[in-house]
Structure formats: C-alpha cells, structure tokens
Design brief:
The chain has about 500 residues and is of the alpha+beta class. Helices cover about 50% and strands about 10% of the residues. Strands 1-2-3-4-5-9-8 form a 7-stranded mixed sheet. A two-stranded antiparallel ribbon has the order 6-7. Helix 1 packs antiparallel against helix 2 and helix 6 runs parallel beside helix 8.
Length: about 500
C-alpha cells in the first residue's frame, strides 16, 4: 500500500491470506504456517481459551500496580509459538477475536470509578482526591490485553512479532475476516503502542547504495510499491548517481527497512516519472553543479503492521536535513506523486451524472462533440469503457482532446473533493498536512499501464518551501485551507466555469 505519500498503505506483501509480511518472514523460524497445535488445521476452542488465560496477565489492583511481578517470559514465548503455529485465516481470526472480546476493559470497574470521579466533583473534594480518583479511572480504562502486548514488546524479537500480529489485524479487518467493536478497539490500542515504540528517537536513518548488503537491496526492491523495480540494472540505477535511497530501521530490528524513500537529484522540478525510472546505464560520477533540486518520487511502507503509524512525515524531514548537509546547493524540494483514485472517481462521476441527469455535464459541449466524433458514440458508456481498459491512450486524438478537461477535473479532485473538510485523495492529504504546496499537475507524466489506470497518466508535484511548511501545515490542519499554485487554482476555476457536479 503505498505511494508518495503513503498510501501509506504498503504494497501487498501477503502470500495467501494473512501470511506474514515479507520483512517479517524469517521471524517465523521453521514454524511457517504449520498445522494447529492440536495436530489439526483448526485449534480447539478449549486450547485457545486455556492458552489465553495463561498468557494474558491479569490487571493488578490499583494499589499494588507498581509492585506486581512481571509475567514469566515463558508465557509470552508460549503465546508467540502458539500464534505462529496457527494456520492463517480463521484460526488466527478466532484467537484475535477471543483476545479482544474476553480480555478487554473491565466495564464494571470503569463504571464504578467514573461514579467516584463524578462524586468527587459534586462534593467539591480537595484537588488531590479528585486527581487520584481520575488516575484510578484512567488505570482501569486499560484493556487487559495491553499487558500482554507490553510484555511481548520486552521480549527479544517481541517487537517484530507485534508488528506481524497487527499486520494480521489490519488485513483481517480489511477483508472482514475479523470484525466488531472489540477487535477494532484492540487494533487501535496496538497501533498507539507501536506509535510510541516506533517514535523518531528509536529510528535510524540509513542510506542504501549499490554496496549495501544484498539482502537489504532485495528488500528495497521487493517493497517498492509505487514504481516497481524491473531488474537488478534498474535497482542499480535507483541507488546510483543522481539518486538517493533512504530507509528507517528500528534499534530493536536493525537492518530491517520499515519505510523507504527514493529521491532523484535533478536540475529542475520533474514533470515525468519516465525520465526518473527509465532504464539507462548509471553514470559513474555526479556533477554536483547540475544538482539544484531534490525530487521525492516514491515512498513505501514495507510493514503492514505499521499502517497508521506516523513514519513518512519524519522520514521526509530527516532526508531533507541529510541532503542539505551533503548538497547545500539544493534549493528546491518537491515530490512527483501519483494520484491514486482519480480514474475511479471520474468513472463514478460519469455513472452518477448519466443516471441522474441522463446527460453529461463534466465536459463542454464542444469537448463532448469532439469526443463523440472520435469514439463514434455520444453515450458515456463508451467513455467509461475506454477509461476502464486504458484503450483511449492509444489514440493521439483522444489524448489531445482529453488533455484540458482531464487536467481541470483532476485539479478539482485534488483541491475540491473533501473528506471531513480535508483533501479526499490520501496522497494529497499527507503532503498538505506536512505543509507542502499543491504546485503543478502534469499531463502524461506516468504512461505506464498502472499510471494510466490509476490517474489517466497524470501526476502532481507537491512543493516543499521549507520556510513556509510550518505555517502551511497549521493552516491546513486548523482551517482546512489548501495552499496551491496559480496553475492549480486556474484549473480549478476552469472546472467551476465549465463543469457541473
């Protein structure tokens, strides 16, 4: 799941349902996906309940919380072995569901101490008594399984396992293999815990070069979700001259890429991905006088279990500082980002407008007439078919006539389509949150089948003006105001004049 900014959804790393992410496979040792502990493909419910009752430590009474002995390491190791031995799919889903449902918050205690907090306020008791009552309530709001996760996080290899387990949770919730409020709450609790454990103080920035270990190069290649690596020559180019590749690793998981950023060093802001990732022999030496611009063209989260954990923003900031130290002459920092979802959005608009209005109002009359003459059909069904199968890109006439309307439609999709007041497109939302400017939309910037299918070949530059990123980010997060260039605003204005939603 990934794109520049994240998807940050990592590239699908699952081999079959719920297999461990590629980066975590060697953690499974020989267990792989063995048959269940009871010798059959489905673990017995009784065995599951017994294991959970042994593995999940009870929440100690509030009075003795600091003195409670830690759970035995053997219990945590037993849980890890048991979980990894379960077959992917229903057996793991059953265990996760029982863990979330049966070892959550003690709602009785929460109700009891909520009442005591209200009582302390109503009786206007001294501040110390009120704060203690609130602290007790806060303590009992912790679900019991949180203690298990804390214990596992302290074990050798435990952090890897928890990332793997959350990867299963994320995948299970997406496919409805696991569902319900208890499981969703547990997913959120574990995500928050991982956010603390993977904060910037524990992360190491590492640069990838052709001299990096083969295992690291292979992982970088496998994890590339935006512009797939074709072969080793392509990989050598992406870490060679006029290119930089960086990743974050964790001090407890050294050498394991968690999130990867690819950078092109250029003399101007790139408008086409073909010029960056095309297969050409790498140059032996860089001419630093030609480097004035850094283009962030791909960022990929490699671990499904870290979805939603803020890593991309910090990686970009760290890389900017690294590049400023190495190449202080760089003055421009920009992305060349895909626009996932645009084609799907456009096809949906065509369908809804045809159904509701029995006519199309996304194009001007002259544009629609020209499109109809080229396709030989005045209905939107033909246009939808062309968009769905990418056939339109074979026609120079269609590429030409689609240029202006698709550019203004794309500008509106990025600038005007919102979710809870923020940009609907996840890549746009990511970079706008970081304080970038929606700077330029580029026509036929990605002519690969994937680029045509996702965004009709368009890409967008998000420009990072370093002196303005903090104020831009505050304006976007606070007032939902999008900073955009004259080109983007002009296209938005054209959309408002010529198209109707």
């Amino acid at each position: 799941m990934s794109r520049l900014g994240p998807c940050l959804s990592p590239r699908p790393l699952l081999r079959g349902r719920w297999a461990a992410p590629r980066g975590l496979r060697r953690v499974s040792v020989a267990a792989g996906l063995r048959r269940g502990p009871a010798g059959s493909s489905t673990a017995s419910v009784a065995g599951m309940e017994e294991l959970l009752s042994r593995s999940v430590p009870p929440l100690p009474p509030y009075e003795t919380k600091e003195k409670a002995p830690p759970p035995a390491e053997l219990r945590g190791a037993e849980f890890v072995r048991y979980y990894r031995a379960l077959e992917a799919g229903p057996p793991r889903a059953e265990l996760l569901t029982r863990l979330a449902r049966d070892f959550g918050v003690d709602h009785g205690r929460v109700a009891e101490f909520s009442a005591k907090v209200l009582q302390a306020r109503e009786q206007q008791r001294e501040l110390g008594a009120l704060l203690q009552a609130e602290d007790r309530l806060r303590y009992y709001l912790n679900p019991q399984y949180r203690g298990l996760f804390q214990h596992l996080g302290r074990l050798e290899g435990g952090l890897r396992f928890l990332v793997e387990l959350r990867g299963d949770l994320v995948e299970g919730l997406a496919t409805k293999a696991v569902d319900g409020p208890h499981v969703k709450e547990m997913n959120g609790v574990l995500k928050n815990m991982l956010s603390e454990w993977f904060s910037t103080g524990f992360l190491n920035l590492e640069r990838v070069t052709w001299q990096s270990p083969c295992e690291v190069l292979q992982k970088i290649s496998d994890s590339e979700a935006v512009h797939p690596v074709r072969n080793w020559v392509d990989m050598k180019r992406r870490v060679g001259s006029y290119r930089r590749c960086y990743f974050f690793s964790h001090c407890a998981i050294p050498g394991e890429p968690l999130i990867v950023l690819h950078v092109a060093l250029t003399s101007d802001i790139s408008s086409s991905i073909q010029a960056i990732v095309k297969e050409v022999p790498p140059l032996e030496t860089e001419d630093t006088d030609k480097i004035t611009t850094a283009i962030f063209y791909s960022i990929s989260l490699t671990q499904q279990g870290l979805q939603g954990v803020e890593l991309g923003t910090y990686l970009i900031k760290r890389v900017v500082k690294e590049l400023q130290k190495e190449l202080p002459q760089i003055k421009a920092f920009s992305t060349l980002s895909p626009i996932p979802g645009f084609t799907k959005w456009l096809v949906g608009l065509l369908s809804s407008q045809t159904k509701e209005l029995e006519r199309n109002e996304l194009f001007t009359e002259s544009e629609w007439q020209e499109i109809s003459e080229i396709t030989g059909d005045s209905t939107t069904e033909t246009l939808k078919k062309l968009l769905n199968n990418n056939e339109w890109v074979r026609s120079e006439k269609l590429v030409k006539v689609f240029h202006l309307p698709f550019m203004r439609l794309c500008a509106w999709y990025l600038y005007g389509e919102k979710h809870r007041g923020y940009a609907l497109n996840p890549v746009a939302n990511f970079h706008l949150q970081n304080g970038s400017v929606m700077w330029r939309i580029n026509w036929m910037a990605d002519t690969s089948p994937r680029g045509i299918a996702a965004s009709c070949g368009m890409m967008v530059n998000y420009r990072y003006f370093l002196e303005d990123t903090a104020s831009n980010s505050a304006a976007y997060l606070g007032t939902k105001q999008i900073k955009a260039s004259e080109q983007v605003l002009s296209l938005v204005s054209q959309f408002q004049q010529n198209s109707k939603l």
